[in-house]
């Protein structure tokens, strides 16, 4: 792919040369809009405004679809309102609704009033849906035909209609007079069927479809599973309201992946929208990060309390304290590995509740093998370093038990949470790490009190 | 979506009824192949074999594309070889190559010998590419046309050719006599252009394309960025070799996401293929999990050594030991949050090296605010519990410093790794957690030695 920063440097030079405006426009036009979006992202605000003003309407609208919401709002806000409205009118309806939905209410109202009536009415309808549901994501402009048309009729109809209404073509949807969805025809079967054949004879009636209120994680799952390029969206009465295409789903998948990754390290995306955590008001970031830290705090105070029970042991043998981070660190790490494997497996379907027992037994065996190995190493290192074989053996045994136990807890908990219908991705990480700390310390101090205090 | 286990139960009843074989076939045929794949996954091996034998050739081939590699090989191995070859011939070339590539070499050779000559030659070529590159992923059957054909010619050509060669239709590729890629025509522009127009007048010549040796992570990035449904694959001489479609990329994205999530918790996917970690030989799982645990072991022994330097302090004041897990736990957690945010941001492009300073300052502020809050709470709880205000204050200050420092390290390290071209996702997690442990303990013990030993 392109080296964006080199390009930006070159464009900067051209921008500074007042006589080179034609060259600047040519240069900008020569890039794919997706590349241009990356270039704009890397520019300073005043630079990208200067470049944006050079683009013609078509290119500006195409670019708009690849820009981040922040840049969309920034650029449209900085240019003339008339021009901004013209650019918005050139966008597909769903993209226009996205742009307007990201603006302040009074600002988007100004634009909506300036847009052509039909366009603005359709975009207003889109804006009434929750932006995380099929209604908020779909494009309402869909090519529909009747079931008594022939293949030739449809081909002729597409020739006029698709161009005129700027329609995307993935599938042709067959509807009745009240716009109820009856069937779907792929472009492939349209192009390969005899031209005098009736549409109702080639349409498929068992249609995979979405409802306007379906949430985006469900939508992504349906796309992932059935592998269509586009799916129709209907309302409660099976009336066709729009269509969702693969490029919409791609954005959803990226967002869902981000949420999963955030949750796995204890960043809550339920209280704060995931794209507000990385920039902007730091209160949002604090709100997203504090809840699980707070639960960790409570858990670790329990760990502190466990250790406190062994005050006498600690006073008699202060050296044992220095191994606490070692045990906690390795137990936490191997436990986190098990959680990660199970949570991801449950989410991709590679692991199911039916296979829980297999995975628990398998992880236990893995934890035991790794635990024995690391326990032995710990024993040898401690013995060599402290010249105290009993201490080495006790720390090594604690390590082996701790690591085995950590894999068991890390494997078992996601299944337990899933069984009671709690999302394992949300609850697992920090809670389990703390649990492992608590139990690990109890095991360690019990071993020390039982074996070491009498020996030394 | 469907309740799979209910369906499997019902199918089981029908299977046990010898007179209901027609009903069983009807029932199976009524499901979408994607659903049927889920149903098969949930069945016992002998059950799915019984059901698979009921399907006709077309349905069996369609189902094959949705099954996991394990089930594909299992089912084909259990049925008659002739029948298996017929099913494979019905698959798209890339799917056939995937199935055969997952078999043992001698087994796939048996099938390849039985397949029609042209088909087996093309599949053999696909098998020569690395399965993680464009060559190994692409479908070589692509509809190509010449640039002097008219729109009508192409429409007529598709009508015959697409059906005959079982071709997927996304874009029409324009090539010269030596199969060099000259241009691309979307179905949309084919369907909306005047029928007597020449293809060279409507084709796009600035083509986003892939090379046979491009790796899958690059392919996914290109698809994500340019948002096409399908991209052509060419060799070094720009000869068209095949096409990659969205459903291929979906599998790549899922695999890449799994790798990212694994790496973030210290599971190496460089030594072991990511789908061999969750099941099968446990040696693979141990190999994938041990390297980062080993590095953690070394790091934690450094932490143990730091604590060892303060033996005298520990002997004088054993109570301070019990707060070690508390400090390490919260420092580790907030540090991991920062790493996760930066690594994910760098991978989606929301964070760039240019914005490093902004993010480091912002995270430092967040860490400071959260640190002050948690430090205060720690002070109050410790004071109330141990009736020792000095101890409470020292532990609280250590907590605040520890958490602030953990966010700084967690934010800074991914940028530093990125600058020297090491993938931050791979190296960050366990190393940073250990570093935070080491520095955190040093800070804590220094505070205790300096202030607390003199006070008490």
Number of helices of chain A: 23
- Helix proportion range of chain A: 55-70%
Task: Give the DSSP E fraction of chain A (strand runs of 2 or more residues).
Answer: 5-15%
Which term fits the overall shape of chain A? Answer: elongated
Instruction: Compute the number of structural domains of chain A.
Output: 3
Q: What structural class should be given to the helix and strand makeup of chain A?
A: mainly alpha
Greatest interface:
A-B, 108 and 109 residues
The N- and C-terminal alpha carbons of chain A lie at a distance of: 66 Å
Strands ordered across the widest β-sheet of chain A: 1-2-3
**Can you tell me the CATH class of the largest domain in chain A?**
Mainly Alpha
What is the rounded Rg of chain A?
Answer: 30 Å
How many runs of DSSP E, i.e. beta strands of chain A? Answer: 6
**Spans of chain A of 5+ residues with little confidence (pLDDT < 50)?**
none
For the record, the CATH architecture of the largest domain in chain A stands as: Orthogonal Bundle
Characterize the largest beta sheet of chain A: strand count, sense, and whether it forms a barrel.
Answer: 3 strands, mixed
Oligomer: homodimer
CATH superfamily of the largest domain in chain A: SLC41 divalent cation transporters, integral membrane domain
Q: What is the third-level CATH name, the topology of the largest domain in chain A? A: Tetracycline Repressor, domain 2
Order of helices and strands of chain A: HHHHHHHHHHHEHEEHHEHEEHHHHHHHH
């Amino acid at each position: 792919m392109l080296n964006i920063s080199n390009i930006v440097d070159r464009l900067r030079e051209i921008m500074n040369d007042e006589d080179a405006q034609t060259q600047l426009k040519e240069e900008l036009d020569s890039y794919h809009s997706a590349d241009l979006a990356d270039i704009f992202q890397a520019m300073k605000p005043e630079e990208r405004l200067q470049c944006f003003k050079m683009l013609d309407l078509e290119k500006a609208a195409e670019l708009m679809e690849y820009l981040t919401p922040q840049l969309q709002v920034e650029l449209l806000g900085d240019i003339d309102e008339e021009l901004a409205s013209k650019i918005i009118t050139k966008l597909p309806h769903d993209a226009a609704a996205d742009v307007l939905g990201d603006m302040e209410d009074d600002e988007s109202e100004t634009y909506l009033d300036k847009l052509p009536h039909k366009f603005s009415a359709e975009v207003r309808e889109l804006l009434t849906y929750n932006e995380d549901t099929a209604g908020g994501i779909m494009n309402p402009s869909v090519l529909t035909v009747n079931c008594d048309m022939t293949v030739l009729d449809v081909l002729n109809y597409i020739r006029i209609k698709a161009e005129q209404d700027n329609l995307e073509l993935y599938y042709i949807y067959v509807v009745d007079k009240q716009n109820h969805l009856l069937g779907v025809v792929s472009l492939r079967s349209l192009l390969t069927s005899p031209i005098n054949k009736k549409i109702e004879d080639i349409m498929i009636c068992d249609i995979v479809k979405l409802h306007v209120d379906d949430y985006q994680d469900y939508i992504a799952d349906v796309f992932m599973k059935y592998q269509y390029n586009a799916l129709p969206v209907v309302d409660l009465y099976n009336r066709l309201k729009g269509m969702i295409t693969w490029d919409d789903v791609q954005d959803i998948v990226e967002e869902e992946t981000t949420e999963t990754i955030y949750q796995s390290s204890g960043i809550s995306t339920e209280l704060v929208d995931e794209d507000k955590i990385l920039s902007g008001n730091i209160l949002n970031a604090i709100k997203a990060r504090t809840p699980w830290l707070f639960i960790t705090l409570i858990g670790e105070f329990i760990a502190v309390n466990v250790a406190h029970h062994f005050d006498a042991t600690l006073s008699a043998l202060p050296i044992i304290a220095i191994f606490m981070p070692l045990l906690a660190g390795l137990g936490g790490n191997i436990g986190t590995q098990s959680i990660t494997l199970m949570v991801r497996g449950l989410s991709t379907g590679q692991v199911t509740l039916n296979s829980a027992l297999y995975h628990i037994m398998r992880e236990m065996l893995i934890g035991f093998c790794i635990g024995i190995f690391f326990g032995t190493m710990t024993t040898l290192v401690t013995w060599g370093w402290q010249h105290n074989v009993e201490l080495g053996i006790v720390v090594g045994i604690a390590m082996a038990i701790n690591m085995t136990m950590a894999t068991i807890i890390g494997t078992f908990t996601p299944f337990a949470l899933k069984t009671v219908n709690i999302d394992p991705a949300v609850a697992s990480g920090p809670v389990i790490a703390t649990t492992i700390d608590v139990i690990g310390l109890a095991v360690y101090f019990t071993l020390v009190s039982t074996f070491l205090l009498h020996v030394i």
